[in-house]
Every structure is written in C-alpha cells, then in structure tokens.
Amino acid sequence: MTDAKTPAARPANPRFSSGPCAKIPGFSYDLLVDAPLGRSHRAAVGKAKLKEAIDLTREILGVPADYRIGIVPGSDTGAVEMALWSLLGARPVEMLAWESFGEGWVTDVVKQLKLDATVRKAPYGEIVDFATVDFDKDVVFTWNGTTSGVRVPNGDKIPANRTGLTICDATSAAFAMDLPWDKLDVVTFSWQKVLGGEGAHGMLILSPRAVERLESHTPAWPLPKIFRMTKGGKLIEGIFQGETINTPSMMAVEDYLVALKWAKSVGGLKGLIARAEASAGAVAEFVAAHDWIENLAKDPATASTTSVCLRFTDPRITDGAAFAKAVAKRLEKEGVALDVGAYRDAPPGLRIWCGSTVETADVKALMPWIEWAFEAEIAAL
Ligand SMILES: Cc1ncc(COP(=O)(O)O)c(C=O)c1O
C-alpha cells in the first residue's frame, strides 16, 4: 500500500453532519429578513407564514390534498410521540426497528405506553422483512435509519387495503426519497434534516384514516396539552392550517420557507432526490474502488442516499472504534469533514450526510481525504 498524498482540493463546505444538516447552498442570515419577529404568530402575518410553510410542504412533497399537515413542537421526536400517544392502543401494534431511533420508538411504546407490541428488530446494516409484518395491526417504523444508513427501498410490501395504521418516522428521508403516500398514514419529519432547517419544530402528516382514528379513539393514558389534536372528539383543524398549539419560532419558520423556496428552485422533489442520489453515488463509487471500506447496508437496495454509513474492513485494524474515531478526528482537524463519526450507538465507522443541501462536488472532494486519513491512521498503528 502506498502513502496517500495530501489531496489538492478541499470540499468548499465541510459540513456533512446528519442533523442539523448543512444549510442550503448560498445560505446567509440576510435571507431571513422577512421573518416577522416581535409579532404574534396569531397575527395575520404570522399565520400566513405558517400556512405558506404547510402549503409549500404539500406542493413539494406531493402530499395528497386530503392529508392534513401540521407544524408541531418538539422537532421530529415531538411529532412521532404526538402520533404514538394519540393514536395507539386501539388495535394490536407491531414495532419495527433496525437502528437507534427505531429502537427509541420501541421503548416509548413498550416501556412507557406499556403496550404488548410485537417487536421486530434487525441488526445494524439489515432491515426487517416487510413481508413478515401484519399490516392489519398498527405498524410503527422509520423510513430511513439515520444511524445505520439503511432505508425502506419502497412501499411495495405495504398493502393498500391494510386495516392498521402505518406510522412512519421519515425525518431523514422526506425531501430526499420518494414516500408512497397511499401506504403511509402518519409521516413525520423535522426541518433540521434534509432541507437544512432549524431544530425545534416537527411536521406531522396525517391520512384521512389517521384522522378517523383520532376522532374515534380515546387513549387510555393522559395526554398533555402539547399532544392534543382533538377537542370534543373532533380534530382541531386549525392546527393543520398554521394555528400551532403553542408558540413557534418565526425565525425558524422563515428559515424553513427559504429552504422550501430553494427546493423549488432546484426542481422540487425530483431535483432534491437527484441531488442526494448523486452524492450517495459518489460515495458508493469510492467504496467500490477500495477494499478497506464498505457500506454498512448489506443490501444495496436498502442503502440510504442521505445518511451514508461506512465501516472500515482492513484486517490490520484491531480496535475498530478507536480507528474510526481517529479518522473522523483527523478529517475534522484538517477542516475537510465535520461530524462524520458514526452515531454513538452504531457500529464504528463514518457517516457522511448526502442529503439534498449537500453539494455533490463537496462529497467528491471529500473522498480522497478519507483515503488520506485512512492511510495516515494505518501508518500510525
Ligand atoms: C430517524 C430519526 N428519528 C428521530 C430523530 C430525532 O429528531 P429530532 O431531533 O428532530 O427530534 C432523528 C434525528 O437524527 C432521526 O434521525
């Protein structure tokens, strides 16, 4: 093996974090000047901004007209937990998990809500076989496992005529992957992911069947105000028209609007998906050309195009965790890649965010640096 030379080019933007993710290309605080700061979010100007955020979300993601879209507190976690606490308990539940966040939802349902759920887990790098799932139960799963880089390839195995609800945490998928709306009853995501927005707010998207459940089912447990979506057995429609349950950050709303408008300018959902696929493709090409690194996803059909997770396979490496950490640290110190270490609960390796705000040219420029850092750490063993 030869010493890797210091690469000539650097990524223009070294931000490859899997959340909060890189801001849109060309971002500047000046883009937020229209934020109605110091005004009530219930004033016409605030309400119009919130409604615009909902409308643009629908337009770009292609959300069906009869699905509700709400802006809720607590980022993606808030949106998922609002759904779990409000909807579950009416029928049996299956929980699917193949990485850390999915496992978190299992904990919520089994340990906190104390539901006797069927739990199906797959190890990091693999996915639960959807053919084994009973979709006449309520099924909770994560579309893209951000910490394992494994995603649901498509919705083909989810029956259109299911009687249970599908509750899908799509936070690292929405805006970068196709989501089959007819197969999904609840979809959640946060602004801080694929569009590079800010934390704090979550999006909760409900199918007509999910709304029917909300209006017909009263959970056996108490619901805090922050989770309540019905009043007197009827959906609070205002929540889905921009009348948020509590006070949102109008700065974050403005930032989300700016990102949505950028998304339109790059071709909407198609353009966003193409950007992520091109970046993930650049990583895949690099991995295919080197025998000391591989994708954590065992089946390429399930390999994420946003949170691309890699592991080092060189037999000279004895302490995988220390090695991967040292590589990530070297890249960070060099200023060519920030936040690319694997998630704390995931197998050791690198995680390179390829979501739609990341420039493919930057991903391409990073690849030789990974080789450079790998060679340097091997030499130091
Ligand atoms: C799959 C998944 N679910 C939930 C979360 C939590 O998101 P938030 O911090 O926006 O609540 C994350 C964050 O990385 C995630 O990747």
From TrEMBL:
Protein family according to the UniProt entry: Belongs to the class-V pyridoxal-phosphate-dependent aminotransferase family. SerC subfamily.
Organism of this sequence: Ruixingdingia sedimenti
UniProt keyword Iron present: no
Signal peptide boundaries: none
Key word Phosphoprotein present: no
Protein name in UniProt: phosphoserine transaminase
Stretches of the chain forming a coiled coil according to its record: none
First-tier enzyme category under EC: transferase
Lineage top rank: taxon: Bacteria
Catalytic activity: O-phospho-L-serine + 2-oxoglutarate = 3-phosphooxypyruvate + L-glutamate
SUPFAM superfamilies referenced in this protein's UniProt entry, alphabetically: PLP-dependent transferases (SSF53383)
EC number assigned by the record: 2.6.1.52
Entry GO MF terms: O-phospho-L-serine:2-oxoglutarate aminotransferase activity
Keywords from the UniProt entry: Amino-acid biosynthesis, Aminotransferase, Cytoplasm, Pyridoxal phosphate, Serine biosynthesis, Transferase
Pathway terms, separated by semicolons: Amino-acid biosynthesis; L-serine biosynthesis; L-serine from 3-phospho-D-glycerate: step 2/3
Names of required cofactors: pyridoxal 5'-phosphate
